[in-house]
Model the fold of this input.
Amino acid sequence: MFDFSGKSVLVTGGSRGLGRALVRAFCAAGAAVGFTFRQEKEAAVRLQGELEEGGGRVRAFQADVTSFARAAEVVAELGEAFGEPEVLVCNAGVARSAPIWKMTEEDWDVAVDTSLKGAFNYLRAVAPVFVRRHEGKVLCVGSINGLRGRMGTLSYNVAKAGLVGLVKTAAAELGRYNVNVNAIAPGFIDTESQERTPEIIRDLVLMECAIKRLGTEQDMVPLVLFLCSDLGRHITGQTIRIDAGQYL
Done:
């Protein structure tokens, strides 16, 4: 359904979870894919090897997305390997849970710097390329909790709320250069990072959902690919909820 043949795609936080599913999907759709990872080197190497064995063009880049300088380096290195990126997916994010009266400065900084500053760093790095080429697609992975708020995850919610403003402003500034900038706002996604989530929390999530099922990575992938393809060329500046009606 989606053809990214000949395109170069960059995914941040691509070694596990939704990021890994997106790397696989873009690769299967014909793209040359670069992805960042911070610490999970074994997982990143395994993913790259798996996709290369299947004939894919994939490159893992060790990078902390909070580093402004490293973002520019990754974009340049991807350009040397596969050509300048035409699609950027800002997926990297961290959640730190604590009520506001117990949240530490580190809890705040790690979540906001990873999800929000990280997205800015990579968008800033690709923007000159997209402007010069007069084309590009940007997709940020947000959360319904950045739209509604949720007790106990203040720093994460604020970071994801900030992405909404980032997307709207970047879409307004880059639209004249034929660049689309959008976000998805997933609800609960049942990934490996949620393995320790208590059953009571899962039950509460299901109670919130209009469609009584927990989301998976594969529920997110088609929308991301659509927004990053030419089929989504008339959509920009939007944050689209994909949550089984968890937040109505």
About this structure: The mean pLDDT is 95. The chain is about 45% helix and 15% strand. Helices lie at 17-28, 41-53, 68-82, 105-133, 145-148, 154-174, 199-208, 217-228. The longest helix spans residues 105-133.
